[in-house]
Design goal:
Oligomer: single chain
Structural class: alpha+beta
Shape: globular
Distance between the termini: 22 Å
Number of helices: 5
Strand content: 25-35%
Number of domains: 1
Largest sheet: 6 strands, antiparallel
Order of helices and strands: HEEEEEHEEHEEHEEEH
Strand order of the largest sheet: 3-2-5-10-7-8
Radius of gyration: 30 Å
Length: 280
């Protein structure tokens, strides 16, 4: 007499044997999700203070204001607290990113990272008491400038000097085609800290940021009524000075590939288990 040995099967409500397959699919999905989550890139953000900054004035084209406690971007129609128009202001700002790049290299490995965000923080003084500065809400532009050779200088509104960048230098510092717009923005018109996200779409700007060299920014007005005054790097409170934050994530690396390889192996195991189950 022969004995029949029946393998137990988990029946669904429809009488099929799909429960083991469903369980295996769930196990595979869980394994894949765990592998991906474990190796998901962790972002690192650094904060950078300017190494140089200065504003320049069309109404005072040969004198420098690099030592002032405030910077300004102003249009032709903006006025000071007395209602006097002081003309157009532009601002130059420079960051040295050697330490930032070294930090990213130490965390992720040399060159094994990319930038995902660049944000400039500025603290506005909406009602400056010094009559040199204009007031008013309006649009302005932040540009990447390829020329980093300008000198900050030591002048201020009370005692302008000739030892640094001045309005007349802009012809050589920012000639047509030498700047790349990173975005158009509007000031708040209030005494507040404001964040301005800079576009990373230009390859040249992105390369400059990741090279660890000096990176320059140029601010110019779009609307005539703009009178945006904000703290400079010479301002007494460090936390109220301009700051550039950069966020980096690692490029896909060996750990991630190994994790995904493990998930692929789990998928192969699932298919093999499914075939074995169907033969029962």
């Amino acid at each position: 007499m022969r004995l029949k040995i029946h393998s137990p099967r988990l029946e669904t409500s429809a009488g099929s044997s799909t429960a083991p397959q469903t369980a295996l699919r769930g196990a595979f999905a869980a394994l894949f999700l765990t592998a991906w989550t474990t190796c998901a890139p962790a972002a690192v953000t650094t904060t950078n203070l300017p190494t140089s900054d200065a504003f320049v004035r069309a109404e005072d084209p040969t004198r420098n204001y690099g030592g002032a406690g405030a910077l300004a971007v102003s249009g032709t129609a903006s006025t000071n607290r007395l209602g006097v128009a002081n003309g157009v202001f532009d601002t130059l700002m420079r960051f040295s990113l050697g330490d930032t790049v070294s930090n990213f290299n130490s965390v992720f490995g040399a060159g094994n990272w990319t930038l995902t965000a660049a944000t400039l923080f500025l603290t506005e003084n909406a009602a400056p008491n010094n009559d040199v500065y204009n007031r008013g809400v309006g649009a302005f532009r932040i540009n990447w400038m390829t020329n980093d050779t300008w000198i900050e200088g030591s002048g201020n509104p009370s005692a302008p000097t000739g030892d640094g960048a001045v309005w007349d230098d802009l012809v050589a510092l920012v000639p047509p085609g030498s700047t790349v717009p990173l975005g158009n923005y509007t000031n708040a018109g209030a005494n507040t800290r404001q964040a301005f996200a800079l576009s990373l779409s230009d390859p040249g700007f992105l390369t400059d940021l990741m090279s660890g060299s000096d990176v320059g920014l140029f601010f110019d007005p779009i609307e005539s009524g703009l009178g945006f005054t904000f703290n400079s790097r010479s301002f007494g409170t460090v936390s109220a000075r301009p700051m550039l934050t950069l966020t980096a994530v690692p490029e896909p690396g060996v750990d991630t590939m190994l994790a995904l390889g493990g998930a692929a192996a789990a998928a192969f195991g699932f298919r093999r288990a499914k075939r074995n189950h169907e033969r029962v």
